[in-house]
Amino acid sequence: MKADPIVVLIVLAIMVLFYFAGNYLLAPIIDTLHKEGLIPGTEEEWRFYAGLLKTVPGYAGLALTFLWGVLGDYIGRRKLILLLGLIMGISLVAISFSNTYLYLIGVMTVFGVALMGIGPVVYAFVADVVPSGSRGFGYAIYYASTVFGMVIGLLLGGILLYWRSAYLATGLPVIVFAVLVYVLSSGITIGYADKEMRVGEYSLIGALKEALTPSVLIVMLQIVAWTIPWGMLALFSVEYIMTRWGLSKWLATLVIMIATISIAFGHIIGGIISDKLRNSKGPVGRVYVSMAGIVVGYAAMIAMLTYPYPYGNESLPALLPPALLAAAGMMFTTFAYPNISTVISDCVKPEHRGTVFSIYNILNSLGWATGPMLYGLMVAELMRGGVQETQAMMIAATYITSLWLVSLVAWAFLAKYYPRDYARIRAEVGEE
């Protein structure tokens, strides 16, 4: 039976949704884990230990990420998606049995290694499924599923379930859908969607040379600055609102859930608009969409973080303005996300995408893993210097979020190089 690319993309997205739900469960339960004694430390120090639950798995995953990308190019991507999906599902189930900090961080490290390992494989696999002209939307579906995974994780961990049950509820579906992706994607090979491009033999040296393509290199250099704020927001956003605004846990979780849903719309809208502009104005259309989104999103996010909220007021008139700012900040900034992956897939040969995406994913993961630790350290140092806790949180968050301006500058450079590299790679592989 011939594989249906749309069905494969949907099933893949569901699998991604559940393993990202498991990944984001930590944010709404982090204070619970501290109160139950699983996260040690004083009131000044515990956020550092909490940050390590993301930072240690993040750095551990760096050691094998490149290997997974190379294997994806060399032996194919379906088998690795199955293997790493099973590892993630089993790890999430195992987390529900945690009773010590060392066990918790150990199992989360296994999960984190598989989570980062599957990233470059999935990035390359999406390009196998979706052709270049629709790739913004294809990556938007993937990224939107990661966002809805965050919403599900916040909902399960923050409102509906005790945290042990929540990890079980996310781990088991990951196992099921990993198997389904493997079965349903039979026949989808490397370069399957690029029907007019020749797929050559894999070459590690060739892949590394393509990673130095100007457009790819620019994306690589900006990704750490781009993801450090996202790493911070993913772990500490609920706790930020609870502490700085004085809201209850469930209401703070609800605010972040609403803002997070806007990220999914940002992926979809950004992907659709960038595809349309790409098909009418060429590759540079993706650059225009990304830059506009970052400018608007950054301004809104800074306004939310510094908003003079009336502490403890849980009325709708008090909540609505900063909640809308949070939603706008996350939605518009996200316009750039599907285009980042699209730039790489457009400027790299099909047989080398997994390897190049593994380098990208190492830097991407470095930013996500560094964000929580950096925020925790900055808050702790400011408080030791006599700054009030809520003020220290605001200062640290605004400084870290301002790293998005580095990405804005990078996109300005891409306006020059991306169209050239897009045309060159197609000339080299013989697209007509």
Can you walk through the features of this model?
With 432 residues, this protein is an all-alpha fold. It has 16 helices and no strands. It has helices at residues 5-24, 26-35, 46-75, 78-95, 101-129, 135-160, 163-184, 204-210, 214-245, 249-281, 284-305, 316-333, 337-346, 353-384, 389-401, 404-429. The longest helix has 33 residues, at 249-281.
Poorly predicted ranges (pLDDT <50, ≥5 residues)? none
| Average pLDDT reading | 89
The number of distinct β-strands equals 0
Biggest sheet descriptor: none
Q: Please count the helical segments.
A: 16
The coarse overall form would be globular
Supply Rg: 21 Å
SSE sequence, one letter per element: HHHHHHHHHHHHHHHH
Proportion of residues in extended strands? under 5%
Distance between the termini: 29 Å
Structural class: mainly alpha
* Percent range of helical residues: over 70%
